[in-house]
Design a protein that fits this description.
- Helix content is about 35%, strand content about 25%.
- The protein is globular.
- With about 180 residues, the chain is of the alpha+beta class.
- A five-stranded antiparallel beta sheet has the order 1-2-3-4-5, sandwiched between helices. Strands 6-8-7 form a three-stranded antiparallel beta sheet.
- The protein has six helices and eight strands; from the N terminus they run ββαααβββαβαββα.
- This is N-acetyltransferase.
Length: about 180
């Protein structure tokens, strides 16, 4: 990965039910509401108010300019509704490039996380041929997120990574396992 600072437009990825796209100001109210929901935010550092939601929002958009990839906005194709954020990111201090997922309460339990994370992983591996794997950082108590990782073919490495003041587990999948899993599926 290079540290070049360049503008990188966010691609648009369409799946059967979703559109993964870049951040727009129209997404800020829904993002702010999602990050104020205790059930949604409990495993990603907790709820935040409007000021911190704005900072996160700007950082999510800026990640694309600085890294050439980042979280996508997840939009429901049928309604245009904001569903959450899913995709690759690599914050400073992270152990490896991660694909993460956060969906608002209305979007949970419908398979959207697997659908969007899978599409973003396909895009990521195509865009970064040098990438050998990706990880997901998951709280040990977050069973729904672990199920998403399992459905993506990821495995718990047993490694611990401390973030937001608590310990998380690192899940990962290699490029080879990803490609073989997609071909078999």
């Amino acid at each position: 990965m290079t540290d070049k600072t360049i503008y990188h437009p966010t691609p648009i990825i369409e799946t059967e039910r979703l559109i993964l796209r870049g951040w727009e100001m129209r997404d800020l109210p829904a993002y702010t509401q999602m990050m104020a929901d205790e059930d949604v935010a409990r495993f990603i550092g907790g709820t935040v108010g409007p000021d911190m939601a704005w900072r996160q929002f700007a950082g999510l958009a800026g990640h694309w300019a600085l890294r050439g990839f980042g979280f996508f906005v997840v939009e429901e194709k049928a309604t245009g509704a904001f569903m959450g954020r899913i995709g690759p990111h690599f914050p400073v201090g992270w152990p490896h490039l991660e694909i993460g997922w956060t969906l608002n309460a209305a979007a949970q339990g419908k398979g959207y996380a697997v659908e969007a994370a899978g599409a973003s992983a396909d895009w990521l591996f195509a865009a970064k041929p040098e990438l050998t794997k990706f990880i997901s950082v998951i709280d040990p108590a977050n069973r729904p997120s672990q199920k998403v990782a399992e459905r993506l073919g990821m495995a718990n490495t047993g490694e611990i990574f401390e973030v937001f003041g608590y310990k998380t587990e690192i899940w990962e999948i290699s490029r080879t396992a990803w490609v073989n899993g997609r071909a078999a599926g």
